[in-house]
């Protein structure tokens, strides 16, 4: 599926928790892809190391912003709905999965 | 300049500290660019949030590996040479610049 | 209140989400306090920088483990209950507060 | 050895790279120890999770500041001197050790 941001899209049958913010995430990711391409060019052109490091720090931060947005949507929608539908089995599984994702995001 | 990794290249007049590892950095960055494109596609296809988060964590880690490699080269070459040539003024400036880069890399 | 881990305690009137894991958190925090004191001693004794850095990295990781445990408990209990009781106002406020805490934990 | 910050101390025979900033590091570490004790008390008193998380984020940041200061001193002194004295063997060993410490500090 190719989302054209700004156009009215046919909703997916089972929309993801981040459906409302999908366009925002896509715009950020396109920008990040361009930034990575920029860093590749900087290395190829043998630009100054410190300037490249500054760019990499900016990309890392931008990626973490996307991760935060997805985590946020995930907790508000997927986890919430699973816990609401079945607190013990499905809900517990979602919580455990979320903890693993948070652990990874915190680099533990 | 377009570096063709594996080919013998004419050395730049003032090669950067990371010149020896340039191809390694370029290969990693190309892979990262592809990974970012993959995440964009995952969001567009409305894949499961947790799977996207796992991918973003992998990209962040790969970017930090490139940053570590550049820091390493920078300390071994640029900082070392500046301090050797002029310990007080140029050397001190390089150290101060490095501290700023480390602070940014440590997210302080 | 002084919790004696292992003893049966009178439950607080409004127990926190982390009440069940309180003793685990306290034990970890006591250990962390000892580790910080150990680092202070290492600096005072002028021990080798790299060994001190290794210790600081271990403490940082241990602190992040406590943070992860608290986040986990918070999402499972406080956020869940607030959303259940009042999805629009109180629930929304809890989600917004959680996003801020996650942003801080991710160092954004 | 117990350093009394502010007093004139007899220099150690082989002062560490961070000798000049020792008092600053000790003051920061004492403050961090107090902050950890504060968090322990907050958990024991069953204070609100989000407030505890904010405190843990502040401690993590303070610890990383100490790490940055030590790294900085280490590069300026220990690494510099080892490379100066013996660029191939001892210098190379110091660089490799520094890379490992940076990798750990970057949580890779």
Automatic annotation (TrEMBL), chains A, B, C, D:
<dbReference type="InterPro" id="IPR003735">
    <property type="entry name" value="Metal_Tscrpt_repr"/>
</dbReference>
<protein>
    <submittedName>
        <fullName>Metal-sensitive transcriptional regulator</fullName>
    </submittedName>
</protein>
<dbReference type="Pfam" id="PF02583">
    <property type="entry name" value="Trns_repr_metal"/>
</dbReference>
<comment type="similarity">
    <text>Belongs to the CsoR family.</text>
</comment>
<dbReference type="InterPro" id="IPR038390">
    <property type="entry name" value="Metal_Tscrpt_repr_sf"/>
</dbReference>
<keyword id="KW-0186">Copper</keyword>
